[in-house]
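Possible regression after last week's pipeline update?

I re-ran a chain I had predicted before the update to compare outputs. Posting the input and the new output here so someone can diff against the archived version. Not blocking, just want to make sure nothing changed silently.
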Amino acid sequence: MKTLTLKAFGRDVEVFFTLNHYSMNNNLCINMVAVNEGPWSTLTTNFDVNLEPDEAFIDTNNNAGIDEILVANGIAEPTGKGIRSGFCIYPLFKFNLDVVEQYTCVCNEG
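New output (post-update):
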């Protein structure tokens, strides 16, 4: 499993993904987990919009610069669309699910 290195709070943080779906509309939900630290942040955010299975809105409000990291690593591409909520516009990205899988942990439960 690959990891991504994020710059946060003056240090490097290595993260991997866990995948799920939002119960409201079954849209893709991607969480980031910091290696040796645990849950880090939710990469995606959900709105009352039905998306394609490989699309998700990115939470750039709480994950500054993550859009550039996704593009640079071939994980996702912007669609040019977005949705406004409050003072933020959340961009819609199309994910390369084969690449996402490389950064995803299928964590054992129990």
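Follow-up from reviewer: compared with the archived run. The radius of gyration is 13 Å. Marking as no regression found.
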